Amino acid sequence: MSANETRQQIVDVADRLFYERGYEATSFADIAKDVGLSRGNFYYHFKTKDEILDTVIERRIANTRAMLDAWEQDIDAPAERILSFVHILITNRTQIMAFGCPVGTLCNELAKLEHAAKEDAARLFSLFRVWLTRQFVTLGREADADALALHLLMRSQGVATLATAFRDEDFIRREVADMEVWLLAQSPAASRQRSHQSA
Amino acid sequence: MSANETRQQIVDVADRLFYERGYEATSFADIAKDVGLSRGNFYYHFKTKDEILDTVIERRIANTRAMLDAWEQDIDAPAERILSFVHILITNRTQIMAFGCPVGTLCNELAKLEHAAKEDAARLFSLFRVWLTRQFVTLGREADADALALHLLMRSQGVATLATAFRDEDFIRREVADMEVWLLAQSPAASRQRSHQSA
Question: pTM for this one?
Answer without folding.
Answer: 0.94
